[in-house]
Target: Amino acid ABC transporter ATP-binding protein
Amino acid sequence: MTAMVKSEAVHKSFGPVEVLRGIDLEVQAGDVFCIVGPSGSGKSTFLRCINHLEKVNAGRLYVDGTLVGYREKNGKLYELRDREVAAQRRDIGMVFQRFNLFPHMTAAENVMEAPLQVKRESKAAARKRAVALLERVGLADKTDNYPAQLSGGQQQRVAIARALAMEPKLMLFDEPTSALDPELVGEVLDVMRDLARDGMTMIVVTHEMGFAREVGDSLVFMDEGIVVESGTPRDVLGNPQHDRTKSFLSKVL
Ligand code: ADP
Ligand code: MG
Model:
């Protein structure tokens, strides 16, 4: 079986600063793959490489068996054209810490935007699906509200529905609950739990260790641009082997 994501010695630098220093990991289809680690360890950069928001400098990154961002020919790599990059990105949904909704559009319009613009779907079809997706994230009664009229938890659920509207095969979550008031975290995690139950492949950067333990199939601890430790959430969180992992967990658990 092909892994949904395969990272082989992935490196990424910003100028002289090497932020990813050889990331090796595999995410199996249908799995919830959690990434934990201190601030600045390269977690967001890694997700951004998967979603073409950053370009890998060295190593190979594959999504569903396809090399991300490049074409390989006779052992050489050639950068993909914009149109080809857009096609690869279409299958990947991403949810950020900040909800990034379009403020001048209602919840339904936010969810409809990509299907209308990218897939050229009809307005009626896009609206129908948006309403169904908003129902799925528990917002059936908020379809025509603007982001400013929604709580942070509701906005983040709209953001999840918006990502789902393109029917992605992979969802990336970058600390989706970190910007929320504590009482709103649960409703977002509940939606993510449902998605996992439906078999969505998800990579989740999170500090919610309870969620990772309960929902995660695999977990890696990243520090200073490398994967320090990996395994089941139970093993890594319950029985960390490395001092750096132990020290980090003692601060967050
Ligand atoms: P994390 O998500 O684990 O907190 P990041 O991937 O956001 O870590 O950042 C890792 C390091 O890369 C940090 O030191 C950050 O300052 C740096 N970095 C991230 N993006 C850029 C950028 N566009 N230009 C320069 N440095 C960056
Ligand atoms: Mg980050």
In short: The chain has a mean pLDDT of 96. The two ends are 35 Å apart (CA to CA). DSSP finds nine helices and twelve strands in the chain. The CA atoms of residues 137 and 194 lie 9 Å apart.
